[in-house]
Design a protein that fits this description.
Distance between the termini: 24 Å
Radius of gyration: 20 Å
Protein name: ABC transporter permease
Structural class: mainly alpha
Shape: globular
Keywords: Membrane, Transmembrane, Transmembrane helix
GO cellular component, one term: plasma membrane
Order of helices and strands: HHHHHHHHHHHH
Number of strands: 0
Number of helices: 12
Transmembrane segments: 20-38, 77-99, 120-150, 162-186, 193-211, 241-263
GO molecular function: ABC-type transporter activity
Length: 270
């Protein structure tokens, strides 16, 4: 890894990374803030939820109802808003770290220094992973601090399952970032790389969402990486955490390795 490049890229992108982290922390604190009001009227909300179609509940992570704080968080935040925030981050930063630099000609300047393509690509992958880690760390800390601050001992909270939820969330977007990084590494045009990465992420999300709506469409989830991340099952203790973690980590590592190899072998515009 090129340490000087890593420091420069982190300095350049830190403000954007912290903006996503702040946004994620804000939403999770908002969810925690409104939970006591929801919990006091659980019966009314449970009745409303039971009246909704099963497919709708599955699509947005409310299959467990509102039985606990973790159930509420998994449905209200990790089932949708979390996916949107981290998908945008993964696609945007992966494109910015490689395809944008190639498109603008800045990559030629970086490669004119005493370094190699492999070191440059590995360094940019490290920046992307570090940014993702920072967002997830801030989100996790905000969730734990928010619970202590806003909830206290009034309602039970399974910290271990919350940590597992965030761990698998990190690994999910490690895999998504790896796929976006691979596309960026193979592209000369920033807009094309951004568009293709965004389209793939949206396609994965759509297939997973449609697959949740009905038993007849559930087979579509087999083609979506998002189907590996099931917040309701994780907080309910029904998920195979180890298998899911290994699969997501393997996808991410393979995609990043392929991206580095592609960047090493390809022809770059002068």
């Amino acid at each position: 890894m090129n340490l000087s490049l890593y420091k420069q890229m982190m300095k350049t992108n830190l403000k954007g990374i912290m903006s996503y982290a702040a946004g994620s922390a804000f939403y999770i604190l908002l969810i925690l803030g409104i939970y006591p009001s929801i919990a006091k009227n659980t019966g009314d909300f449970e009745s409303m939820i039971k009246s909704m179609p099963e497919g709708f509940l599955n699509a947005f992570g409310f299959e467990n109802g509102l039985g606990s704080l973790e159930d509420f968080m998994s449905g209200e935040y990790y089932g949708l808003i979390f996916i949107i925030i981290l998908s945008i981050f993964s696609v945007m930063l992966s494109t910015k770290l490689l395809a944008k630099l190639v498109d603008q000609g800045a990559m030629a300047y970086i490669l004119s220094t005493p370094t190699t393509r492999v070191k440059v690509a590995f360094t940019q992958a490290a920046v992307l992973t570090t940014g993702l880690f920072i967002i997830m760390a801030v989100t996790t800390i905000a969730g734990l601090a928010g619970y202590v601050w806003m909830i206290g001992d009034e309602y039970d909270f399974d910290v271990s399952r919350f940590l597992l939820l965030n761990l698998l969330g990190f690994l999910l977007f490690f895999a998504i970032s790896g796929i976006s990084f691979l596309i960026s590494a193979a592209s000369n045009d920033e807009k094309k790389a951004l568009g293709l990465s965004g389209m793939i992420a949206f396609l994965f999300f759509s297939l997973d969402l449609i697959g949740k709506l009905s038993d007849k469409t559930e087979w579509l989830r087999n083609f979506s990486i998002f189907s590996l991340f099931r917040p309701g099952e994780i907080v309910g203790g029904n998920a195979d955490v180890l298998q899911t973690a290994l699969m997501l980590a393997a996808i991410g590592l393979a995609a990043f390795a392929a991206g580095i190899a592609a960047f090493k072998q390809r022809d770059l515009p002068l």
